[in-house]
Specification:
The structure holds two protein chains of two kinds. The mean pLDDT of chain A is about 90. By secondary structure, chain A is mainly beta. Chain A is globular and about 45 Å long. In chain A, strands 2, 4, 5, 9, 10 and 11 form a six-stranded mixed beta sheet that branches. In chain A, strands 1-3-8-7-6 form a five-stranded antiparallel beta sheet, with no helix packed on it. Chain A contains no helices and eleven strands. By secondary structure, chain B is mostly beta strands. Chain B is about 0% helix and about 55% strand. Chain B is built from no helices and eleven strands. In chain B, the strands form two sheets. In chain B, strands 2, 4, 5, 6, 9, 10 and 11 form a seven-stranded mixed beta sheet that branches. The chains are: A mainly beta, B mainly beta. At the A-B interface, strand 5, strand 9 and strand 10 of A face strand 4, strand 5 and strand 10 of B.
């Protein structure tokens, strides 16, 4: 079993829709949770960085962490064609600051 | 502010050869990380350097090695290249001792033929 599981998609939604991207994990020691966006032929770009459980909002993006269920989500409101990319969840524990574990990524396509 | 820069952008090598990939971190960042992103496998952690020392290593054979220079730039060396080493190699940097999220470069696409 992988430490972090993420549905690879692809996920295709119409412009303006609310997008929900999710990851599950098995290591209860994970405390820091991240979402990265990766455009084709580019490196991943950090979108959201959260600690422990709860919600964090940044513009059209909301990150949600439920540690009791070992489940994290990223919501994108009013989705735009420019949001089309691969989204990677990532997480690490307090003790393993060096080693961020990434999900395999979900390919998202926003249809105009 | 310049981001993380990697060179070369693309590299084509023959099986058995050696490849050298280079990375310059964001100014002020002392930690450099290397990841391999092979098709369908996601990002796999390779190496972490901080203050010139190798601090952690992923589950890769010893022919994957590297170093960090006094100016915090880093080099990844892959010896005895195999076909399955073909991947996008990403370098990331952060403030010291693995703090915060990482900032990634655009990667080096290594193709082994």
């Amino acid at each position: 079993q992988k430490e972090v599981e993420q549905d690879p998609g692809p996920l295709s939604v119409p412009e303006g829709a609310i997008v929900s991207l999710n990851c599950t994990y098995s290591n209860s020691a994970f405390q820091y949770f991240m979402w990265y966006r990766q455009y084709s032929r580019k490196g991943p770009e950090l979108l959201m960085y959260t600690y422990s459980s709860g919600n964090k909002e940044d513009g059209r993006f909301t990150a949600q962490v439920d540690k009791s269920s070992k489940y994290i989500s990223l919501f994108i409101r009013d989705s735009q064609p420019s949001d089309s990319a691969t989204y990677l969840c990532a997480m690490r524990s307090q003790s393993s600051a060096s080693k961020i574990i990434f999900g395999s990524g979900t390919r998202l396509s926003i249809r105009p | 502010e310049a981001g993380v820069t990697q060179s070369p952008t693309h590299l084509i090598k023959t099986r058995g050869q050696q490849a050298t990939l280079r990375c310059s971190p964001i100014s002020g960042h002392t930690s450099v990380y290397w990841y391999q992103q092979a098709l369908g496998l996601g990002l796999q952690f390779l190496l972490w350097y901080d203050e010139g020392e190798e601090r952690n290593r992923g589950n890769f054979p010893p022919r994957f090695s590297g170093r960090q220079f006094p100016n915090y730039s880093s080099e990844l060396n892959v010896n005895a290249l195999e076909l399955e080493d073909s991947a996008l190699y990403l370098c990331a940097s952060s403030l010291g001792r693995g703090s915060g999220g990482y900032t990634f470069g655009s990667g080096t696409r290594l193709t082994v033929v």
